[in-house]
Design brief:
Blueprint: E1 2-6, H1 13-23, E2 28-33, E3 54-57, E4 73-76, H2 83-88, H3 90-110, E5 115-121, E6 127-133, H4 144-159, E7 165-171, E8 173-175, H5 186-197, E9 199-202, E10 209-214, H6 215-226, E11 235-240, E12 246-248, H7 249-259, E13 264-267, E14 277-280, H8 283-288, H9 298-311, H10 326-335
Parallel strand pairs: 1-2, 1-4, 2-3, 4-5, 5-7, 6-14, 7-11, 8-10, 9-13
Antiparallel strand pairs: 10-12
C-alpha cells in the first residue's frame, strides 16, 4: 500500500505518520509539505519525517504530480489551519484550503488514487444553538477557515465515484501533545498559561461550546478512513469526536486548574459574545467506527500536555509571541522575506 500525506509537517501530521507506520509497517508512506513549521519540533532535534519513505518539500498549489504515482490513498491535511491565519490571509486560505484541495483531488482521481481522506472541521457548524449538530444539520460557517472547509466538501462530493472514494472527517477542535507543538489551540493555550504563569486567561466570557479531540485520536480516525467500508458510499462525511468531548470554554479552564493546582482563571466578562459556539453529535462515527473511538479524555490530554511542557522546561510567559503560535511563525517568515504576500517561498530561498 502507498499512502500520501499532505501537510505532514504540521501539528497533526507526526501523529498520523506514527499511527500509519504502526498499523501498516510495510506501507510506502510519502509526505508533501511546504515546510512552514518544520522548525517547530519538540525536542528540537526531533525529525518525525524519518518514519516516512519519502518526503517532498512542495506547496500544494504547485503539487508535484510525480508524488501521485502508484498512490492508493491520500490523507489531505495541508491547510491554513486556524481562524486568525484565515482572517489575515483570507484569499490565500481559499487558494490553499479550497481550490488547491479540489485540484489535488481531480489530479488524484486521474492518477488512479482510490481513496481521498479530507481533514474537515466541525467549525463548519459555526453558531449552532439548540441540540448537538449532526452531519445532516445546516452548516453555518462564520470564518474564512470554516467556509473553506464547506466549499471543499461541496466540490469533493462532485469528484466522488468511478472508483474514487472520498471521506471527509469533520474533526472536533484538536488538542494534546505533538512532536510539532501548537499552543494556539484552546486547551493547549490554557495548559501553557497555567505552567508558565500560573494563570489562564479566557479571552471570551467562557460560555461558547467546543468539542475536543486529542491529536492521537485524530490519527486513529485517519487510520480508519484509509480502509473504511466502501458500503458507506463514494462520498462520506462524518463528525469525529465523542459526546463526552463537548465542553464550554470555561469548563476547559477549570479542568486545567484542577490538574494544576494554584492556577488562577481569568474570564473576560466584558468580552463581545463569541458566536463560534457549537455542540456536536458523534453517533454516526460511533456506529461506523466502533473500534476507533477516542481514547483520550480531557484529563488525560491535560496531563499529557503538562508532562510534555515540563519535560521541555517550558517557562515562556510570552508564548503567544513564540513560533508555537502558527500565525506568529508565518509572520516571522514574512518579515524575514522568506515568504511573499501569498505565502509562497521567495525565489531566493
Amino acid at each position: 500500500m502507498k499512502i500520501l500525506i499532505t501537510g505532514n509537517m504540521g501539528y497533526v501530521g507526526p501523529s498520523v505518520t506514527k499511527q500509519l507506520r504502526s498499523t501498516y509497517p510495510r506501507a510506502h508512506l510519502i509526505g508533501v509539505d511546504a515546510g512552514y513549521f518544520a522548525g517547530c519540533s519538540i525536542p528540537q532535534d526531533t525529525v518525525p519525517e524519518l518514519r516516512l519513505d519519502q518526503q517532498y518539500f512542495a506547496d500544494v498549489r504547485q503539487f508535484p504530480e510525480a508524488a501521485l504515482e502508484g498512490v492508493d490513498a491520500i490523507i489531505h491535511l495541508a491547510a491554513i489551519s486556524n481562524d486568525p491565519m484565515g482572517n489575515l490571509y483570507e484569499s490565500v486560505t481559499m487558494d490553499i484550503n479550497h481550490r488547491a484541495s479540489v485540484d489535488l483531488a481531480i489530479k488524484a482521481k486521474k492518477s488512479g488514487v482510490k481513496a481521498f481522506i479530507f481533514a474537515s472541521s466541525c467549525s463548519m457548524y459555526g453558531s449552532a444553538e439548540g441540540s448537538a449538530k449532526t452531519e445532516n444539520d445546516t452548516l453555518n460557517p462564520l470564518t474564512a477557515y470554516a467556509r473553506s472547509k464547506v466549499f471543499t466538501e461541496r466540490d469533493l462530493r462532485q469528484q466522488a465515484g468511478d472508483g474514487f472514494m472520498v471521506t471527509c472527517l469533520r474533526f472536533s477542535t484538536a488538542c494534546g501533545l505533538s512532536e510539532r507543538l501548537r499552543l494556539d489551540l484552546v486547551l493547549n493555550d490554557f495548559v501553557a498559561g497555567a505552567i508558565s504563569s500560573k494563570q489562564i486567561s479566557i479571552l471570551s466570557d467562557g460560555t461558547p461550546w467546543r468539542p475536543l479531540i486529542n491529536v492521537k485520536d485524530m490519527a486513529r480516525a485517519f487510520e480508519w478512513a484509509v480502509s473504511r467500508n466502501p458500503s458507506l458510499g463514494d462520498f462520506f462525511a462524518v463528525n469525529i469526536g465523542c459526546e463526552q468531548g463537548n465542553y464550554q470554554v470555561r469548563q476547559l479552564a477549570e479542568a486545567v486548574a484542577r490538574v494544576l493546582p494554584g492556577v488562577t482563571v481569568q474570564v473576560n466578562e466584558n468580552a463581545q459574545p463569541d458566536k463560534r459556539s457549537y455542540r456536536v453529535n458523534f453517533d454516526l462515527f460511533r456506529q461506523v467506527a466502533p473500534n476507533h473511538q477516542p481514547m483520550y479524555d480531557l484529563e488525560a490530554s491535560i496531563r499529557e500536555l503538562k508532562e510534555g511542557l515540563l519535560a521541555m522546561n517550558f517557562k515562556d510567559e510570552n508564548f503567544r509571541s513564540s513560533p508555537f503560535m502558527r500565525l506568529v511563525q508565518l509572520n516571522h517568515l514574512r518579515e524575514k522575506g522568506f515568504l511573499d504576500a501569498t505565502l509562497r517561498w521567495s525565489p531566493q530561498i
